[in-house]
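PROTOCOL LOG
Step 1. Enter all chains and additional molecules of the complex.
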Amino acid sequence: PPAIRSFAPCHRCGMENRWNEDQAAHFPTALAQRVYTSRLQGADPSLVLHGGGNTSVKVTEPNVFGVDEEILYVKGSGWDIATIEAAGFAPCRMEHLLKLAQLDRLSDTDMARELQLSLKNPAAPAPSVEAILHAILPHPFVDHTHADAIVTLTNSIHGERLVREVFGADEMIVVPYVMPGFRLVRAIAALLETQITPRTIGLILMNHGIFTFGPTAKTSYDRMIEAVAKAEAFREARGAGRLVEAPQEKGTSREAIRGLPTLRRAVSDAAGFPMIVS
Ligand code: ZN
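Step 2. Run joint prediction.
Step 3. Record the structure below.
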């Protein structure tokens, strides 16, 4: 078996690979491995602090008629990735999802209904709205986060140039911003057709986040950690400030209140239009 990886966080950026062979051995099946690395991802606040993330695995298993079907197990809504169980993954029929991905358009309402209809088990949680995206990525395991270090790059001025500086030419496919929904599925499907190579390990979605994928749960997770660590190292090399966690208490100290107008002003100036701070 491969050597147990060190638990020590990267001394430069603090990014930590939490994979542990002994723990992983308690998760024998593909879905169980999916549960394990989803929890590892959920345990890292710098990966999932804002807006969580979602994960999936594609498996082939027999249906009630004994016929093999390809099923996408994708994170279901209402489940926290940090504590997710196998029951928290929605089993969607790949055939249905891939057919949907071929449509020219699909409204949000129709997409939500079709995702429900793709389920192998009607009692399962509703699939993530990003389920079709997971389906069209041509690898068994897919990890998706809105990691701070990545969105710091993508949301910067000249973000796309910075992203291309950090990642090798065909390592990551860069996806221009499209609002999440069916149009994003179509945009990514088109890019995959022309840009994916055997060296591609993920996608960077401008102003949104990152997907990584791979043949095993560990590969996909390792790629997520390495990509985020790369983005962090780049930020540091450029002298960007360290990301600090916001204080947990929700008090309204005098200084905090006095700081708000200044912050609102700075954010509005950067955005180029008025913003509200709450
Ligand atoms: Zn997302």
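Step 4. Note key features.
The CA atoms of residues 173 and 194 lie 10 Å apart.
Residues 130, 144, 146, 208-209 surround zinc ion (CB under 6 Å).
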